[in-house]
Amino acid sequence: MAQQHAAKRLFDKVWAAHIVVAREDGADLLYVDRHLVHEGGFHGFNALRAKKARISRPDLTFGVVDHYAPTRTHDLTAVDPAIAGMIHQHEANCAEFGVRCIGLTSARQGIVHVVGPEQGLTLPGALIVCGDSHTSTHGALGAIAFGIGASEVAHVMITQTLWQKRPRAMRVTFDGQLAPGVGAKDMALTMIAAIGADGGQGFAIEYSGSAVRDLSVEGRLTLCNMSIESGARCGIVAPDQRTIDYLRGRPAAPQGDMFDHAAMEWLGLASDSDAEYDHEVTINGDQIAPIVTWGISPEDAVPVTATVPLPSATDAARAAHVREAAEYMGLTPGMKISDIRVDQVFIGSCTNSRIEDLRAAAAILLGRRAVVPGMVSPGSALVRVQAEQEGLDRIFIDAGLDWVASGCSMCVGMNGDLVPAGRRCASTTNRNFKGRQGPGARTHLMSPAMVAAAAVTGHITDVRALMKGRQS
What we know:
Elements: H1 10-16, E1 19-22, E2 27-31, E3 34-37, H2 42-51, E4 61-64, H3 81-96, E5 100-102, H4 112-119, E6 127-130, E7 144-147, H5 150-159, E8 161-165, E9 168-175, H6 184-195, E10 203-208, H7 210-213, H8 217-225, E11 234-237, H9 241-247, H10 256-267, E12 279-284, E13 291-293, E14 301-303, H11 316-329, E15 344-347, H12 355-365, E16 374-376, H13 381-389, H14 392-398, E17 402-403, E18 424-427, E19 442-445, H15 448-457
Parallel strand pairs: 3-4, 3-6, 4-5, 6-7, 9-10, 9-12, 10-11, 15-16, 15-18, 16-17, 18-19
Antiparallel strand pairs: 1-2, 2-8, 13-14
């Protein structure tokens, strides 16, 4: 009698390929293909010294300077000594333990979650970890990728493995076709608003549907990046021809015949058609409008045409959050989102700083002037070079925005780029928590095109009104 086929999900296929040993309590020891380390990895290096240990696979460990990277100068004598110290320490740690480091002055420098895919370090079917929650970004290329804690960083350094319990599986399907002015950031915020900031807790999310397939790889990177904001462990998109075209020729990817052979295997990475999921969510892409956040959690997201929620329009627990968020943000419940004035803008971060993002913002800013100050920080030095070759830097500068170097910048404010207390920033970043961009800062998350629209009007604006006759 023929053995019955057990349908498998993409995530489970990749997970199973990395199991070294399974424990009775349900935890698996997983082999790690890529370990990405930024300045915050000093805890791991210190643990190595304390144990008199070495890194097991320095060839699979990659250092990047990004969180503390100053964006206005690379002269570390001209910045806060504490910031300079973190960068010097990281580069020295990498040198001591034989880790290749993309340092501050490298031509490849950039945000780790931009650099990984850009360099071809991120490959389909791989298992990738980093001491940063937004490691989920790399799942856009068909990898399992997630953030790990300080003790786990040390464990991976010493053993190239990691104990993990397999998360449950959720499939989020975006059907239909996105309208002009709507992109991956709007998809992500729509999902988070629908399921909540903890709706993905305990799950790995697989993104599917026609709207996901229509996204560029850069758009998929944005979508997977925001998975963590729903509480999910990670996000993943099955590889397709767009994935192959994106990876071909990347420095760390296979080359020549080896690439063609790998590509055949990558295209076979997909969930079985009859695979079942622990939870399913379906969203109509045709109905998604440009989305912005009004509160202090990414789930506080509404269409730009909506109003700030009324506490009375929800349950008691949610009402308390609405009141707290509105008070912190200085907003009146019931006011139109489009009436919210902004004090400054920021385009950058591992969510929206790739060339596609910069092009979308520049298309809105071309020939216009910003009425509020702001800065644009490309996701890597290579993105910056490409943007300058395309003349995008001149569009930003002519609009009155600061064109700066690459780094995490104003997303988390570790490098000195901050939003002053009480000021309101239209931002392409991924988190709008209290104080995320600086103590007392007020952050509204939105797409690059929406940030550009806010820059030229001085308030949150439906970008579709500014798109007539323009490409995005």
